[in-house]
Amino acid sequence: MMENFLLQLFIFLAASAIAVPIAKRFGLGSVLGYLIAGIVIGPFGISLIHDVEEVMHLTEFGVVMMLFLVGLELKPSMLWQMRVPILGMGGMQVFVSSLIICGVTLCFLPWQQAVAIGLILSLSSTAIVLQTLKEKGLMNTAPGRSVFSVLLFQDLAVIPMLALLPLLATVALPNDGHHDSALIDISLLPGYQQFIATILAVGSIFLLGKFASRPIFRAIAATQVREIFVAAALALVVGISLLMTVVGLSPALGTFLAGVVLADSEYRHELESDIEPFKGLLLGVFFISIGASLNFALIGESALLIAGMTAGLIIIKWLVLVVTGFSFKMANSERTLFAIALAQGGEFAFVLFQFSKVNGVLPAATIEPFISSVAISMFLTPLMFMAYEKFAKRSNNESAQTRESDAIDPSKHKVILAGFGRLGTDLGRFLLSAGVKPVIVDHDAANVDVLRKLGFKVYYGDITRLDLLEAAGAAEAEVLVITIGEIAKSRDLIELAQKHFPHLKVVVNAHDRQAAFQLMDFPVSTIRRETFGSALSLGQDTLQVLGVDPYEAHRLVRIFKKNDEEMMPELYQLQNEEDRYIARYQEKHADLETLMKRDLESGTSALDLAWTAKNPEL
Amino acid sequence: MKKILINFAHPAKRRSKINAALRDAIADLDGVTVNDLYSQYPDFHIDVQREQCLCENHDVIVFQHPFYWYSTPAILKEWQDLVLEHGWAYGSAGKALEGKLVFQALTAGGDASTYQPQGFNEFTIAELTSPYRATAKLCNMHWLPPFAVMGVHRELADEKVQANAEDYRRLMMAIRDDRFDVSQAAQSPLLNHQLDNLIRRP
Lengths: 618, 202
Prior knowledge:
The complex is a heterodimer.
Chain A: H1 2-25, H2 29-41, H3 52-59, H4 61-72, H5 76-81, H6 83-105, H7 111-121, H8 126-135, H9 142-164, H10 191-222, H11 226-247, H12 251-262, H13 268-293, H14 296-301, H15 303-327, H16 332-341, H17 347-358, H18 364-398, E1 415-418, H19 422-433, E2 439-442, H20 445-453, E3 458-460, H21 466-471, E4 479-482, H22 487-500, E5 505-510, H23 513-519, E6 526-529, H24 532-545, H25 550-577, H26 584-602, H27 605-609
Parallel strand pairs in A: 1-2, 1-4, 2-3, 4-5, 5-6
Chain B: E1 4-8, H1 18-26, E2 32-36, H2 37-40, H3 48-56, E3 60-66, H4 74-83, E4 101-107, H5 125-128, H6 130-138, E5 142-143, E6 147-149, H7 158-176, H8 182-187, H9 195-198
Parallel strand pairs in B: 1-2, 1-3, 3-4, 4-5, 4-6
Helix pairs in contact in B: 1-7
């Protein structure tokens, strides 16, 4: 049994490890890679896996996690701003698509079944579309946001659909009653109690996220045991899904809500980086199982019917989306992407078809070809994205001026500030005053709380971890500012950043000259010695109090500073050659001696040359 | 009594003799404010509000400086660029400097004969200081020719330095006490050219 499980696991993982890099290599994107891997290892390929439906059902949880992550990136205020596209565009797309598909289906099937199919097929694939948009970096563009709004509305629409579908039952149920919930069956309760339970469930998510999450996460973070935080994050997502299932709501919606509530939390990046790999893996396996579930025998038998249904599905949805785009006054390029992105059936269709079968709405024979065409339409989506990109590139070249610039999301930060202690505080204040909003990451939970109370955007976490660095936006950021006190940690972080994000410019603080030498091993943009600036400022003040002309004192400091900075590379060289057995204090002393000698040599001669006319008494 | 603002600009005061003497001659006078720009703003970060306030509180504005490269030390240009704002110094709403007297007090290396069309420097002091004259016109100020100590490259004797300093002090007192013939001075090539004729006896 165990052996069998491990074998299956191995097949899934190995298939992704082989197929995804190959697909990416050919520019197909990871989603298509997973799908192809699924076909290859599926019952119609080399037939390595069984129980595809079970696997699919299990890994649907990836979608739930994905919505949690999407929620984390959406603040409540932002969600409120998007209410028009969500309700307007989403509502129009779902309603009109359902109506037309229902109308077409009505020519072949009774009205109850037509309505059910219309509703089910109006949904698109959140998993494939969001994954592809993210991969192509389109999430924060105008069409990306419109697409997301519609998908969000669809996820909401699943809930009333689940309630509505059983009312359309026409087929005699194969078995009477069903028991879905493992804990309590809420459907046994009277109507008003069901309603109260639902409200309580949603309310508790809100309250938990708003008030209880912070102290809980703080306590967990204080243990400094990494996997406990991961466990807590997973428990949160799983727990909410469970709660939602019990009250009969969509788990995806529940975790999305939890994500939104936690979007303002300082633990957001930590949660994101903890959940992300699980989500990625589950979704990957989910895509594989979609690929594997393509019933080629059926497709082969009724090739024409399924091809027609698939084409019809895509064309109807595409047309509705184009009209929606027009009525919301989208720009040409925006509308094209919007319509292509959502013109497919979604993974919810599998769930809902299954649900309809169980509830006697649709007979199995009717469902089979529909499931195939939904799967094919999902398979075609990444290909359509590729076609769009080719087309967009060409039309871009033709009319570079007509393309509208993407709306720049003001929340996109260009600077990551690692460490927010003594030095980071003033630095952060300064950057904020200059209009640069850095993503601030600090490892001291208490520090983070205080600073957040002061209105800073500070996140808790260990920035020397790759996943957190990534979650902080290292891929899009331009500059990484390091104000960590520990030199070893600074070095680790620089090494990590330069290995994985070579584009990132690094500006780093060194607490003294020795630390600066250690940082000079890396090609970083700027190294500042933390006490050097203060030392020189105090020196300038001293001269002024002694009665030296302020401008002269200022110039002396500048000359000294310039000399010192010019000396650093040379001293660094010396440092590396010196016998490493020399005691540290001796080393320091020698260092100082060299410095002082050079100071005396170059000293104030530069000052004497300035403004000297033939007669210096001018 | 007129109030006089001396905007003093010298980047190397330690080595200055003549400018220092001129400055010392007037620093203690009632009604005269010396504003040492290089000391006030060693990093060139000029406090525009403070400077505008000083200008508004004085009737006469003097720019005292060595004549570097036929012009002023760098900070005076920065001062002009920042302080003379549109809507304050000029423009339809810029009346803050209207009617105030303005002139330069400068020390130049070459003597007067070099600042002639036939001389070594080819241009007259009046020509070379014309940007200040144009600036004064734009700001509706009353422009006067410069007070110029010339030929300082040929080490001026101490008595000569003293005499110039004394002239400078007399000029400032006369302007302050309204004993200065402004309209006649405007016709003169330099303020210290026949200074006695421009100052009325009390």
